[in-house]
Each structure stands twice: as structure tokens, then as C-alpha cells.
């Protein structure tokens, strides 16, 4: 068996692992980055990037139709949409990401990395990497597969197939009302598929405020999606002409492809965690510096989806910066400040996680979606009905919410839903993280005529 020694070994070459490795190198540490699939990871090839490339044309077409005088057609050109998506993903060629790692001073290593002992990672069973200071696990998440009778007799789509397919199915069934389910249902409907979305509740996106689900439900139906609420898939069977889905309400659908979008779980299986006394299958519990709590010696760190904390690419990269900077500081014998606002800690997931759902209408939220139980928090909801939104689109439909800590007079949560609200989100994130008092926020004057005027209306509705 061959062996090499590094200061840091990062397992997982997606965006989170790339950031961890780059920050470690920046901190003066010799670093290896191990990846068994594609450098660039899930986000680059099968998730965030291709899904948004598929969604954008349909959103733009819908927006153009809301402005009289704009010459638009009635349908997208799927071939051009797929070609643009493939440009972003490189058709799965990760050569550029591999070479980027080398150029950044990282040692990229292709293969399956398994922890085989303290500060030890074995790649493909025959290459032992020893880390002088730390191993950082950034292996992301994997899909949850529900136990549905007959599912193992077909080849269902997962999120990877849904974002990489290059032919429009005539009929697509989608199970799941979360982010992947609603985004892919709408994307494929705008590309010309007859889409049936099956959800268990009254509305999609149940973790958000109810008005979010209501407006997204309207948008899905407006895009041509058939939404089956208060239902589920009882069983699946392969039949002539496609796949038969028997819903829990007894309805039977026949589709050409069936997308199962029922969530994800931390990707800890197959990492060899048992060799260091850590149970695999669940998330790696970490402190705010990214150090894994269950492992003695302070050498194992983790960031991203694998921790179960705010499974979003931007949050994972944020956590990776804290973990790698902590490792670099400790390697130099420096003291690590673990206070909440230290650069060595990732604390935003405690109170200010921003997320955008790129449907039409978009959903942009950060912090709490509702008042805390038993608190004096106040919730203010208004329609997004300002000069900026009226000029932006005829018949503009949207809502906004703020959750206010009335005792401290600061924001705890903000939610926007409407066309093109994603770019409003960072101002809300700054207001929450910065704990800007509402009477101070009153002096942040929104430009006229923009949708940002909604901030003024929210504060007025609150009573300022």
C-alpha cells in the first residue's frame, strides 16, 4: 500500500469540500481533496446549477407575458434550454474543477476515501493518506427513498435524472412537495411535459408560511402542473406504455417517468466512521467550529449537508470556511475564538438561514417563518403591492412577512413570495444578522420605484 502525509485531508470534492481545501491551503496547510465521483459535486452537475438553468427560461417567459408589448412565443425550445444547461455543467466533465484544485495548491485525488483510523484516510483500499492535523468530511447528502410497493420494479428518476435528462417526457409524475419537487415539476411543465405533482398536504412547501404554499400552488397550476393534494403514492407498477401510479385516494395515473423527490439524508454511510467509534447513517454532530463532537483528539471536522445543519450549498461553504480556518489556526498554535461572531465559528444556522426557491413565483426567506411559541413576537403580513411591483409586471401577485422580536425591536424572520423577489433576500439577511433595530431600519430608504419599497410598507404596517 502506498502512503502520503498531508496537513489536512478533505473528503468530498463538492463546493463545500473545495472551499474547505482552499481555505486550508490559504492557511498554509498542505491539503488533499478526495472525491469519488466528480470534482464540483452534486451542486455543480445535478442540483443547484442545472436545476436553475432549467427553471430560468420558463420563469423568464412567464415574466415576459406579463408585460404588454413584449414579443414572445408560447413555448420554450427544449433543445436550446438543454444546451445552455449543459454549458453550465460541462456535460459532466469535471476537468476544469480538477485543474482549478491543482491551481489553488490543492492535491486532488480521485477515489473513494474511507476513514480507517485516527487522522487516516484510505483511498480505494490501497492508498493511505495521513493527516498531521485534521480530516474534514464534506460528503454532502444522499436521497431518501420511500418504501413504496413496486418502486424497485421500475427505474424512477431522482433529482440527478430530473436535472440531467435531455428529452422531455410526455407525462411526468412527481412525488414530493419540497423544493426539488416543486422546482422540477414547474421546470418540466414549462418544457412541455404533462406533469402530475403528488403531495401529502394541502399545499406545497409546508415548512414555509401558509401563504407561500398557496401562491406557489397557484403558480404551479398556472404553469400547467396537475397538483394532487392530500394524497400520496400507494403503489407503483410497470405497465405497457409507462409506469402506473396508484394514489392513496384511489386515483390511477400512467406516466412515462416518475420523479421521487422525498428529501435527503446526510451522506455518512461508507465513510468508515465505525473504525473510530462513530455510528454511521445519521448526521455528524459538530460544534460551531465544525469539530465533530463524538471524536476525541480534535482532529475530525465536518461541514455541509453531512452535518444535518442547514443543508444548503451556501450554508455549507460558510461552515467550511469556519472549519478550515479553525484547523489552520490550531495548527499554528493560535488561540481560536469561539464566540458567536468570531470568524472561526459558523453560527448563522442558529438564527439566519437564507433560502430561495426558484419557482414562479419565487420564495425568499430567512430566519423564522412564524412567531416563537409563548413569545411576544409579532407577525406582520402584507401584499407586495407597491409602484415597483406594479411596473415590474401586470397583475403582480406577492406577499411579504416579517417576524419581530417586540422586546428587542429587531427582526427574527422575513419571507417574500412573488416574481423576482430573490434579490430582496440579502437585505433581510443583513438586517437579521446585524440585529438592526426597526427604528434604525426606518432610515434605510428604499429606492423608488422598486419592489424594495415593500420594506417601507412592512415597517408602516408594523406601526412606524
Fold and architecture overview:
The protein is an alpha/beta fold. It has helices spanning 15-26, 41-45, 48-65, 78-89, 95-103, 159-164, 179-190, 210-222, 313-331, 387-392, 425-433, 438-441, 454-462; strands spanning 2-11, 31-35, 107-110, 113-117, 120-123, 127-137, 141-143, 171-175, 194-198, 226-228, 233-239, 242-247, 252-255, 257-260, 264-266, 300-302, 354-357, 362-367, 378-383, 399-405, 410-418. Strands 1, 2, 3, 4, 5, 6 and 16 form a seven-stranded mixed β-sheet that branches. A five-stranded antiparallel β-sheet has the order 17-18-21-20-19, sandwiched between helices. Helix 1 packs parallel to helix 9 and helix 3 crosses helix 7 (179-190). The longest helix has 19 residues, at 313-331. The model has no long low-confidence stretch (mean pLDDT 96). Pfam families: Pyr_redox_2, Pyr_redox_dim.
> What is the radius of gyration computed over CA atoms, rounded to a whole number of angstroms?
24 Å
Largest sheet: 7 strands, mixed
CATH superfamily of the largest domain: FAD/NAD(P)-binding domain
Strands, count: 21
Amino acid at each position: 500500500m502506498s502512503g502520503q502525509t498531508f496537513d489536512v485531508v478533505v473528503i468530498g470534492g463538492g463546493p463545500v469540500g473545495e472551499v474547505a481545501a482552499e481555505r486550508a491551503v490559504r492557511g498554509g496547510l498542505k491539503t488533499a481533496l478526495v472525491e469519488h465521483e466528480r470534482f464540483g459535486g452534486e451542486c455543480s452537475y445535478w442540483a443547484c446549477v442545472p436545476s436553475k438553468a432549467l427553471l430560468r427560461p420558463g420563469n423568464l417567459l412567464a415574466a415576459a407575458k406579463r408585460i404588454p408589448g413584449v414579443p414572445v412565443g408560447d413555448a420554450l425550445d427544449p433543445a436550446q434550454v438543454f444546451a445552455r444547461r449543459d454549458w453550465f455543467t460541462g456535460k459532466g466533465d469535471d476537468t476544469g474543477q480538477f485543474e482549478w484544485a491543482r491551481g489553488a495548491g490543492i492535491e486532488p485525488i480521485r477515489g473513494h476515501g474511507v476513514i480507517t483510523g485516527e487522522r487516516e484516510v484510505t483511498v480505494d483500499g490501497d492508498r493511505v493518506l495521513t493527516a498531521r492535523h485534521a480530516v474534514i468530511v464534506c460528503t454532502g447528502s444522499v436521497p431518501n427513498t420511500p418504501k413504496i410497493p413496486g418502486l424497485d420494479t421500475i427505474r424512477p428518476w431522482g433529482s440527478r435524472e430530473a436535472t440531467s435528462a435531455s428529452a422531455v417526457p410526455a407525462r411526468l409524475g412527481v412525488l414530493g412537495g419540497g423544493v426539488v419537487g416543486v422546482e422540477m415539476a414547474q421546470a418540466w411543465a414549462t418544457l412541455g411535459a404533462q406533469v402530475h405533482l403528488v403531495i401529502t398536504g394541502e399545499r406545497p412547501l409546508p415548512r414555509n408560511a401558509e401563504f407561500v404554499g398557496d401562491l406557489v400552488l397557484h403558480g404551479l397550476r398556472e404553469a400547467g402542473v396537475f397538483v394532487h393534494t392530500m394524497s400520496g403514492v400507494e403503489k407503483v407498477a410497470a405497465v405497457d406504455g409507462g409506469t402506473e401510479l396508484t394514489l392513496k385516494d384511489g386515483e390511477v395515473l400512467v406516466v412515462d417517468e416518475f420523479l421521487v423527490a422525498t428529501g435527503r439524508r446526510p451522506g455518512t454511510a461508507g465513510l468508515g466512521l465505525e473504525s473510530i467509534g462513530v455510528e454511521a447513517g445519521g448526521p455528524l454532530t459538530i460544534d460551531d467550529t465544525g469539530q465533530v463532537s463524538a471524536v476525541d483528539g480534535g482532529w475530525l471536522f465536518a461541514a455541509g449537508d453531512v452535518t444535518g445543519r442547514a443543508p444548503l450549498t451556501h450554508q455549507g461553504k460558510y461552515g467550511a470556511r469556519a472549519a478550515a480556518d479553525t484547523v489552520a489556526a490550531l495548527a499554528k498554535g493560535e488561540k481560536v475564538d469561539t464566540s458567536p461572531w468570531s470568524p472561526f465559528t459558523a453560527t448563522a444556522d442558529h438564527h439566519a438561514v437564507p433560502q430561495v426557491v426558484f419557482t414562479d413565483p419565487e420564495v425568499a426567506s430567512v430566519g423564522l417563518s412564524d412567531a416563537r411559541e409563548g413569545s411576544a413576537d409579532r407577525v406582520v403580513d402584507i401584499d407586495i403591492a407597491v409602484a415597483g411591483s406594479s411596473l415590474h409586471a401586470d397583475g403582480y401577485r406577492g406577499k411579504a412577512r416579517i417576524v419581530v422580536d417586540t422586546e428587542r425591536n429587531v427582526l427574527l424572520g422575513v419571507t417574500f413570495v412573488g416574481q423576482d423577489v430573490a434579490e430582496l433576500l440579502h437585505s433581510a439577511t443583513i438586517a437579521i444578522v446585524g440585529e438592526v433595530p426597526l427604528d434604525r431600519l426606518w432610515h434605510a430608504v428604499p429606492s423608488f420605484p422598486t419592489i424594495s419599497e415593500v420594506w417601507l410598507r412592512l415597517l408602516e404596517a408594523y406601526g412606524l
